[in-house]
What does this fold into?
Amino acid sequence: DGEMVLYRYRAPSGAEVLVYREPYWYNSGVCPDNGTGVFEVEKRSGGMKTSMIVYGVGNHGGGVTRRDVETMLEMRQWPVFPMLRFGTMHEYFMKAEAYRDRLPVVDHELNTIFTGCYSTQSRIKRANRMTEAALLDAERASALVSQRLGAPFAAEVFEKAWQKTLFTHFHDILTGSCVQESREYAMARLSEALAFAQTQQNRAYERWSYAVNTSMFVCDECISRSRAEGAGAGYGLPYYAGVPNPERGAGLMRIFTVFNPSPIARREIVELTIWDYAGDIHQLEVIDHEHRLVQFELLDEEPKVYWAHYTIRILFEADVSAFGHAVYAVRPKGLTNYPTHFFTFRPDRIEDPKGDIVLENEFLRTSFGTGSGLLYSLFDKTDGKELLSAPAGLYLIHTEDSDMSAWRVGRYLGMQPVTKTIFVQVKRGALRDSVSYQLSVMHSKVNFTVSLDKGAKTLHYSLKIDWNETCKGQDFLPVLSYRLPLSSSAQSILCDVPAGVVRRPACQMDVPALTGACADVNGTTVALISDCKYGFRLADGVYCGCSYRTSCRDICRYKHCYKADDYCGGNGCRRYR
It folds into this structure.
C-alpha cells in the first residue's frame, strides 16, 4: 500500500474516487529531482507517464516563488529531460481518468502518521469537541421550533459558526502542532462559534418554553424580594467545561423544563443549580407535571457562595422523549407534621475501617484502592463477569524522545502507576456515589472524581490535571495515560469515525477516534470515551486512552523548553490543561 502513488479508493457503499498520494515531501520546491523521479512515479501510477508535484512556500503547496518559476523555465530547456509545464490538479485528474482500469483498488484504511497529534494540546481539542456538539444541538433545536412553532431559522449564523469551527480543523491547529499564536487565534474562533451556538440554542429553548404549559404548578406570590432571577450568568464555564447556569425563576416554587435535543429517548440523572433559595433546602421535593414525586438528591448540604449570590445543586432522574421536553418543579414539602429535632449521636465518635472503596449500582460493582486511586475491580453484574485483569488507572509512561514530540509518541520505555495520594473523599447519595482523589506525579497535580449514577452502565471520570512537565533535565518524555487492563485478550477496538465505525487491530500505536472506542471482553463491551482526546490504543490486552503528553521541543523551536508557561504550545503549559 505504501508503494502506490495513484489508485482508486472504494468506499463501503461501492463509490470510488481517484487518489493521488504525494510521493515528494509536501512542502518541496522545484528542483531536478522532480524530473528524474518520473520513471519511478510512472511504475506506481498504473503506467501513466504524466506525474504531478505540489510545490510552493508553505504546507501542501503555497505561493509560488520567483525561484520556482525561474528554475522551471530553465529545466524546460534541458535536453534529454522530461517535459515540464505548469498545470492544475484538474488537468492531472482528467488525464488520470484514462488509466482508471489499470489502477489498484483500495477498500481499507491505509497507514497512520503523526499519531501524537491525536492527544497533543487538550485545550484546542476540548473546545473543538464542545463547539461541534453545541452547534449540532442548537441546529436541531432551532430546526424543531422553526418547523413546529414558526420561529425563524438563522441559517446564515450557523454557516458562519461552522466556518469558524472548521477553520480550526487545519492540519496544524486541531492537531495541537501549532505555535502559541495560532493556538490563541484558534481558541478565539472557537469561542465565537460556541457563543453563536449557545445564543441560538437559548433562543430556540426560549421560544420552545413559551409553548410549554406549566399552569399545573401554582407559584408563590411573594417573590418581589427575590434576587434569584438572572443570577449566575457565566457560572459553570471553567476551561470550556460546562454550560451557563443562570436562574430564570424566583420564589419557593422553581419550575424547570428539561430538553432533549438528541434523536433518542433518554432517562438519566440531571443536575440543577438553584440560585438564592429562601426556603429550607432540607425540606425540598421534586415533582413532575402530574405532581408525582421524583427521586432526587441534594448535592450541597449548605448553600455555596458565588459572588453576592448563593447556590445549591440537586440531582434528579429525568425522563425525556426524543426531541422532546419534560417539566419538573422544585418546591417546599407540604408539611403536616413538622419535624422535631432530637439530639443525635456525634458521627466523629464512630470510626469506620479504611478499606477499598466500593461504588455500586444495579449494573456495576467497582472497587477502588483507598490510598491509590486505582480501579481494582470492574464487575459487570448483568453478565456476572470481572472485566479487569489488573488495576486500572493513570500511569506515568516514559517514552523515548522522537525529536517530533508534538507529532509522534515515542517507544514506551517504562511505566508506573500514579499512586502518590494526598486526599481522598467519598460521597454517598440516593442517585450518585462518588470518590474524589488528589494525587501528585513528578511536578504535576491530578484531581479526579469518579462517580456512578443510579441506572448507569458507565463510570464517569472528571479529571483536572495541572500538567507541568517539560523536557529539561531528563532522558525521556513523560506521558500520563489511563490504562485499562482487560480480563481477556481483545484483538481489536471499534472506533467511531466520520459517517460510521471502523475496527482496528491491536498494535503498539495510538489510533484515532472521534469520541471513543470499545473492545470486546468475552461478549461484554468495554468502552473508553473522552471529551478532549482523539487517540486510543489496544496492545497486550491493555486498553489505553486520554493521554497527557509533554510536547515542547518542536512546538517551541527550542532544544529544551525552559519557560513552559511562556513558550510551550503543548500540554507542558500549566495554564492550559
Notes: The first helix runs from residue 33 to 36. Confidence is low (pLDDT under 50) at residues 552-577. The chain has nine helices and 29 strands. The longest strand covers residues 309-320.
